[in-house]
Amino acid sequence: MKSLKLLVSLAALSAASHAMAWDYVLLDSDKAADNLHLTSQQLGVKTERPFSVTLRTLHGGRQEGVSIIDIDNGVMKLSVVPTRGMNVLQASVGDVRLGWDSPVKEVVNPAFIELNGRGGLGWLEGFNELVTRCGYEWVGHPGLDNGELLTLHGRAANIPASKVTLHIDEKPPYAIHLRGELKEQAFKKVDFSVATELVTEPGSTSFTLNDRLTNNGDYPKEYQALYHSNFSTPFLEQGAKFAAPVKQVSPFNDKAKADLADWQTYRGPTRDYDETVYNVVPYADAKGETLAVLHNKAGSLGVSLGFNTQQLPVFSLWKNTDTQGQGYVTGLEPGTSFSYNRRYQRPLNLVPTIGAKEQRQFQIRYNLLADKAAVDDALSLVGKIQDGRQTEVRPTPLVDLSKE
Amino acid sequence: MKSLKLLVSLAALSAASHAMAWDYVLLDSDKAADNLHLTSQQLGVKTERPFSVTLRTLHGGRQEGVSIIDIDNGVMKLSVVPTRGMNVLQASVGDVRLGWDSPVKEVVNPAFIELNGRGGLGWLEGFNELVTRCGYEWVGHPGLDNGELLTLHGRAANIPASKVTLHIDEKPPYAIHLRGELKEQAFKKVDFSVATELVTEPGSTSFTLNDRLTNNGDYPKEYQALYHSNFSTPFLEQGAKFAAPVKQVSPFNDKAKADLADWQTYRGPTRDYDETVYNVVPYADAKGETLAVLHNKAGSLGVSLGFNTQQLPVFSLWKNTDTQGQGYVTGLEPGTSFSYNRRYQRPLNLVPTIGAKEQRQFQIRYNLLADKAAVDDALSLVGKIQDGRQTEVRPTPLVDLSKE
Amino acid sequence: MKSLKLLVSLAALSAASHAMAWDYVLLDSDKAADNLHLTSQQLGVKTERPFSVTLRTLHGGRQEGVSIIDIDNGVMKLSVVPTRGMNVLQASVGDVRLGWDSPVKEVVNPAFIELNGRGGLGWLEGFNELVTRCGYEWVGHPGLDNGELLTLHGRAANIPASKVTLHIDEKPPYAIHLRGELKEQAFKKVDFSVATELVTEPGSTSFTLNDRLTNNGDYPKEYQALYHSNFSTPFLEQGAKFAAPVKQVSPFNDKAKADLADWQTYRGPTRDYDETVYNVVPYADAKGETLAVLHNKAGSLGVSLGFNTQQLPVFSLWKNTDTQGQGYVTGLEPGTSFSYNRRYQRPLNLVPTIGAKEQRQFQIRYNLLADKAAVDDALSLVGKIQDGRQTEVRPTPLVDLSKE
Fold first, then answer.
1. For residue A162, which residues of chain B lie inside 8 Å, CB to CB?
2. For residue C293, which of B23, B123, B329, C85 sits 20 to 30 Å off, Cα-Cα?
3. What is the residue range of A142's domain?
4. What is the spatial distance between Cα B307 and Cα B208, in angstroms, rounded to a whole number?
């Protein structure tokens, strides 16, 4: 009965825009996030592999009231969390899962998180996504900057989206666009909005994030962005490799120095390993495009992240190869900045400014590399971008944290 | 269908009290805040200008689940936010809007605010109302007092009302009373309740707040209250004026010293102005009644706040004449106290005590001064209260903040 | 209509498990906490005193969205709060009420509490239960430990239960089991889950808590647990007594030293008394079982808590015999630990460790002692466990808080 009513209203909505696309408002100030199940069949689209979009609500525990949007493009399944910054919870193609197993099992409603708790590490009580947006006032480790405690990786991941819309192109390839707006606002402090978009085409094994940050304020403002993109098995395993065109790599801290020689190779789950982080300055092609690749030991399965260094000039490689139970995971993290507290990044020129009314675009393409040929193609592109240019392996961290 | 059901229950309720008034419970422990639309026609009231009361719920972003009550008294429209301390979000008469445009666009659910964030400035993430209640344990700037971080302007604005009722007198002028209770309770710390009331008469261009603070505890307790009443255009503009019977005025801090000579005149939107604040001790008439007036440059449009200095002995004038986008706004703020951190106000005797089981009443009358005659009348009353008494213009702040 | 639908689904559920028990899922990730009223009659159980289980939702104020489960076992009524750590809000037998009157009148949704507020005392804004779970990462007074602010008594009481189920044995005595899972998880910090259970038998005047803590992490982890069990009149009164087999008792702090001689006797409501706390190391029988008893002056009414010192080796007696309005209450608190900040308890060997994948069981039996015979029996058991062994009355606190 309920779904019937929804269909009716969906039909009514789509009628209004039938020439170019189907458009649905899933959530807005006067519209609650009702359950929804929309299929390509309902739209009258005949595709080889039917696609669908589903909105559901979680209950119980600290996930009470959290909305999840599941997109099944016919080949790849994606779950997006409007209640948590439009983060991408997970993606999968068949039994290949992009994402990881965090000890945090719930999809936590930000209402139940104190980001200022645990000395600014409250963010860790909700961290379990494939892609967690970090920013946009700041990113990085908690600590005082200008007398204010900056909490881990900013607020974006814990801002519920204000308006969520679904847009499906009405002609092939019927690209599916899921959009949500994040408002990061505080009187006298910040007036950002982030128009997020996830795009995937039916039948594809990739998706793209297109985010547009706007400084609605009348003054320039510092900002930072980092896309915490997290993978585990079957990509991550002993002997798995990371590849990118690298201009400079350095250990994040003293601990990471020890493994610097092997920074591009992964360990299996390693008891007491905790984590090491490497700060990477990537090379890019003439247009700024670059590619980061993670693949398994055999080179038969991988993922690539394509991004533009004019938007996201640096990259953190987070190697959290501890035990499976603690979260065996690696983070591929294109960003404006590394993961130091903001006060350390100003001297590195990694705290950019966005002028009044200006916008910044952040675009990342996530591709599954489903076989050896796809992995080889990606590695070949990495080599082409590197183009024989030298890599500086800097033995010491860019920041002397011992002086803290 | 739903509204029909509501009407039935409304009718049933009203029947129970038909002799004196119509009474409706809009929200209570066993009653969710359901959507409601109640009109004078439904009540069988024949007025020249029909009035109505509407309850709606906001969705999405950080305003998920926030209730708004819209009162249209036939001439003035008012919006009250039960989820945020029964604050008055905005009011308007025709196209004259009382209120302002904060960078904070959402009506933020307190569940998503950490008042202790941003060094105690988390309150700024929700601040956008015409009248924001500040108090009642404390008001003022964040800072340590007795070893505890007092967050900006207390908790009242972020306490959802516990029980919300609507009372409409059953005979002319059919005054509309909206009531909500705020509970400010913590074991061993505080046991306050605040019975808030907003009253407006159909067809009028004014409203009154009648708040009653009760100390339910068995011990005397410090308290503070401040009614942060915020106006922008068309009242605020270059050359707009503030008037009140003034016994003493002083700059809040060193920055405000520079503009002391012009403290009663406003600038237009001024880049990099930020804010200045003036601490005012008003004169009152023999009964303690006083009046503060804000009017435009031409003196053809204004607002007045009437209050009693026995209840609210001091007044802060907040001149935030920065750019429109940053929030071009002035705050007229009757209070028990100024906006210093509580620890600074004890030596000023501005941290009163409320005895066990005692009550304190706070009443403020907000009037639109719709034309020159109304403005002149109000200014005349100000002059009458001043009654030729001297104004001390104190050149230095009451508190030496440099010693902090 | 709604209740009919519920009954249908209940019947369907019960059919699936009719051989052994009736099982109902009250709340799960895909199931909201809908209102429910289930009676023994509906189950076809013929008992002398019909029993029932009811689920309801609170609205308004800071209790918006809080679920309450009321169990009426035919003799004892119990209210459990899934939204607050499955805490036992209150219990009663006839007009004898177990529990107390806190100044906090709402059943506060954790979404509205900042545990880190008030210098780590935010917990006090929700504290009003008969049994409040404290733990499981830590218990005790707020303060820094390893550079992190530990908030008062940990997070358990403010963790909403993730999955709540009701299990009723299908044969006499038809024991009612209410279960809820608490997830206490933060990446890199903690991966605990607590399977809570409350069991009561129809017609009985007792209930039991059976909690099982699991460390799902791959590393050993410190933990602490304390069951804050709070009673007032008619048990607590001037001359009321506490009894337990005591190996050692000491004052918590200097203030408690003054009343050490009378530590087992209670005052009536005493202005400005605030609180005293005594740290008790109980004796137990050969199996570790022990008993704590609170009874009125006449010895005609009491409660007992039975627990095992292998699970909960120490006991805090909290004597908050201030005025009724401030909360006239005593806490009987079996725990792994006392109420000092965790950093003080390590040297006392009261910060135990739970190994990877290990479990710890905590079981407490709450009995109403309805008449003098029942009180005498309980006191007799206390004497039997003491078995003539000596009590060390230690005149000084175990921790020198003045050195803080």
1. 60-63, 106
2. C85
3. 47-403
4. 10
Residue with tokens 């998920």: B64
**What residue type is B101 in one-letter code?**
D
* A188-245 per-position pLDDT tens digit: 999 999 999 999 999 999 999 999 999 999 999 999 999 999 999 999 999 999 999 9
Mean pLDDT for C45-63 is: 95
User: Residue A60 is nearest to which of C28, C65, C114, comparing CB atoms?
Assistant: C28
pLDDT greater than 80 at residue B375: yes
- Please say whether the beta carbons of A84 and A129 come within 8 A: yes
Radius of gyration of chain C (CA): 21
Do C279 and C392 touch, CB atoms closer than 8 A?
A: no
**Taking residues C250-272, what's their average pLDDT?**
97
Q: How confident is the model at residue B20 (pLDDT cuts 50, 70, 90)?
A: low
Could you give the CA distance from residue C162 to residue C28 in angstroms, rounded to a whole number?
Answer: 6
* ipTM of the complex as predicted: 0.94
Determine the Cα–Cα distance for residues C219 and C191; give it in Å rounded to an integer. 10
Average pLDDT over residues B244-270: 97
Query: Is the C-alpha dihedral spanning B143, B144, B145, B149 positive or negative?
Result: positive
Contacts of C24 (CB under 8 A, 6+ apart): C10, C13, C14, C36, C38, C165, C166, C167
DSSP strand pairing (C206-215 vs C392-393): unpaired
How many Cβ atoms are within 10 Å of A342's Cβ, its own excluded?
23
Do the Cβ atoms of C188 and A326 come within 8 Å?
A: yes
Give the minimum alpha-carbon distance from C128 to chain A in angstroms, rounded to a whole number. 20
Listed by number, the residues of chain C in 43-72 with a beta carbon closer than 8 Å to a beta carbon of chain B are 56-64
The answer to whether C137 and C190 have CB atoms below 8 angstroms apart is yes
Query: CA of A395 to nearest chain C CA: how many angstroms apart?
Result: 27
**What is the mean pLDDT of the segment spanning A133-154?**
97
Indicate the SS3 state at residue A330: strand
How far is the CA of A366 from the CAs of A176, A227, A362, C323, in angstroms? 15, 12, 13, 64
Nearest residue in C to A329, CA atom: C187
> CA–CA separation, B146 vs B321, rounded Å?
34
Q: How confident is the model at residue A402 (pLDDT cuts 50, 70, 90)?
A: confident
Task: State the smallest CA–CA distance between residue A59 and chain C in angstroms.
Answer: 4
Q: Supply the CATH number for residue A237's domain.
A: 2.70.98.10
What's the whole-number average pLDDT of chain A?
A: 94
Q: Are C245 and C284 contacting, i.e. CB atoms less than 8 angstroms apart?
A: yes
CB–CB of A63 and C29 under 8 A? yes
Strand partners, B366: B207, B305
| Tens digit of each residue's pLDDT (9 = 90 or more) over B43-53 | 999 888 999 99
Q: How many residues does chain A have?
A: 404
Query: Among residues 259-288 of chain B, which lie with CB inside 8 Å of chain A?
Result: 271, 274
Mean pLDDT along residues A382-388: 98
Number of domains, chain C: 1
Token readout for C82 is 């899934």
What are the distances in angstroms from CA B401 to CA B79, B251, B344? 37, 12, 9
| B109 Cβ under 8 Å from any chain A Cβ | yes
Residue C160: asked if its preceding bond is cis (omega within 30°), the reply is no
- Angle subtended at Cα B315 by Cα B312 and Cα B318, rounded to the nearest 5 degrees: 145
* Cross-strand pairs, B361: B212
Residue-level pLDDT at A48 = 87
Q: Do B124 and A188 touch (CB under 8 A)?
A: yes
State whether residue A230 is helix, strand or coil: strand
| Residue numbers in A near B326 (CB within 8 A) | 188, 191, 217-219
Residue A2 has pLDDT above 70, yes or no: no
Residues in chain A with CB shorter than 8 Å from the CB of B116 are 114, 116
Tokens 């993430």 belong to which residue? B125
Contacts of B67 in chain A (CB under 8 A): none
